[in-house]
Every structure is written in structure tokens, then in C-alpha cells.
Amino acid sequence: MKQKEARAFIENEIKDFVKTSPLNRMPDNPEQPIFDAPLIGFASSEDPLFTAYKTIIAPAHLTPHEALAIALNKKPEELPAKLSIITWILPIAAKTRQSNRLQKEAPSRLWANTRWYGEQFNDALRTHVVNILHEKGYMATAPAIQPYFKTFTNEKGPYSNWSERHAAYAAGLGTFSLSDGFITEKGIAHRCGSVVTDMPLSPSYRSASTAFSNCLYYADGSCKRCVERCPAGAITEKGHDKIKCRDYTYAALKHLREEWLVGNTGCGLCQTKVPCEFKNPVKK
């Protein structure tokens, strides 16, 4: 399979799964999708960003070779020299975003359902992509659902040993924001995922001039709507305080998790009722 055909095959499989899977539906309304049509990108393990992430994020952050090797119980040097990273963005449906715009202290029920059930769907999509690659005879893993996937905490706050947002940045799907979110052409309100494989796939073009090109604050000093929207006071002109954000989400919103029977509500106020909610606000 040529690389162009391989990319089209992967893109079609992901789009079809998002469109047809019953898991991409609100649990109390099968007519209501959780996510809209996805954005899909590709990155190469040869991209120096993946090595740089050990400095930018933490030494524990895995390279694509490390992520695939651990999953297969191999050594990184036993794998092909070049690997591909498949990444996707799952834009949150308009009805959910609209409901969260009205909130001031906590997320809407639809947003909480998206964070909990939507990530279950995302895990199913990760598994689906890995399975279709295996069926084609390729090695593959989704690091975020592997037993080795872990979240740590340092002086800056929580971080993981595989960042879906940073994989998406390497694939040219967007850039980061003042709120620490990831602004794509479909905005900042989304979930993202990735798979590492030895299927040869040409990388997507990364057009952003900086890692913050899509954020209005970094572009011209304007906006700061996410600062105003944050109920935890976790966002300032200096950036995002991950510890304040985590503590607010897990402590202040505990009653909602219990009431709505979800393991995670998220918050998302900084991702709704902001200029970057569903588009790239810098793009003319």
C-alpha cells in the first residue's frame, strides 16, 4: 500500500468510526453525537520534537520508539528506524459547547458526559485503529491506553509520559494557548488521541511559526477571555496553573461527579464562550 493510499485508508477508518459508532452518542440520547467529524494528522518519529519533549515536558515522556517498544516487549533499536504517529482531534458537538457557555462555576451536564463517556469512545477509537493496523500486518500501539501510561506531578503540576496534545502539535493539527489548551482549525473544545505504528505514512505539514501561533493573546496581546472564564483563577497572563486547575476540578466539583455518576466532569469553561471555542481565531 502506497503512503497516499495508506493515509486515505486510515483517515476513512477514523472518520467512519466517529460517524457510525454507537459509543459516540450521549448515553441518554442516541440521537445526540458527542463529537463532530474529526481532524486527522500524521507525524514522523524522525521529527526532533519527540526528543525535545523530554526536555519541554519531562525526561519521562516517551519517544514513539519507546512507546511502541514497551508495548511489544521489545527494545527500541529492534524497531524500524522510522515510525509514524497517527493523531486525531474530536471536536465537541455544538449543543454541548452551547450548554457550557452558560456556565460560570461548573460544567454543564452535557460537558461532563462528554468528558466521561466521550473519553470512553476515544479509547474505543484508539483500540479500533490499533486493531485495523494489526489486521494489515503492522505493529501499533495507543500509548494512552497502555498499562505503562502514567500521570506524574512536578513543580509545574500534572503531566503524563505521553501527551496527546504534543503528538497533535507535531502532526500540525494546531498550537497551544494561554490556558494550556490546544487550538485547532476546529477550535479548542475537543478531545484528542494518537497511535504509534510502523506503517509508512508521510507526515502532515506543520505550518505554525510558533507553538502558540493560534492564540490571540500570544499573537497580539488581546483576548484573555479564558482568564475571565476560569472559576479557579488558574489562568493568568503568566499561563496556566495546572495544580490550581486540578484541585478545583477534583475537589470543588466532587458533588457533581457523585450526582451525575461520572468519574470525571472536566470543566471546560476556558474552552467555551471564548474566541477559540470552535475555530482558529487568528486565521483570516
Indicate the topology.
Elements: H1 3-20, E1 25-26, E2 29-33, E3 39-44, H2 49-56, H3 64-72, E4 84-91, H4 94-101, H5 109-135, E5 140-141, E6 151-154, E7 157-160, H6 164-170, E8 174-176, E9 182-184, E10 190-197, H7 216-220, H8 225-229, E11 235-236, E12 239-240, H9 242-252, H10 254-260
Antiparallel strand pairs: 1-2, 3-4, 4-10, 5-10, 6-7, 8-9, 11-12
Helix pairs in contact: 4-5
Descriptive account of the structure:
This protein has 284 residues and is α+β, with helices and mostly antiparallel strands. The protein has one domain (3-271). It is 37% helix and 17% strand. The protein contains ten helices and twelve strands. It has helices at residues 3-20, 49-56, 64-72, 94-101, 109-135, 164-170, 216-220, 225-229, 242-252, 254-260; strands at residues 25-26, 29-33, 39-44, 84-91, 140-141, 151-154, 157-160, 174-176, 182-184, 190-197, 235-236, 239-240. α4 packs antiparallel against α5. It starts with a helix and ends in a 24-residue tail after the last helix.
Task: Give keywords.
284 residues; alpha+beta; four-stranded antiparallel β-sheet; two-stranded antiparallel sheet; 10 helices; 12 strands; 37% helix; globular
Q: Structural class of the secondary structure composition?
A: alpha+beta
| Biggest pleated-sheet summary | 4 strands, antiparallel
N to C succession of SSEs? HEEEHHEHHEEEHEEEHHEEHH
Radius of gyration: 18 Å
Let me know the average pLDDT: 96
Distance between the termini: 37 Å
Helical amount = 25-40%
Shape: globular
Count of strand segments: 12
Strand content: 15-25%
Strand order of the largest sheet: 3-4-10-5
Tally of helical segments: 10
Ranges with pLDDT <50 over ≥5 residues? none
What's the number of domains? 1
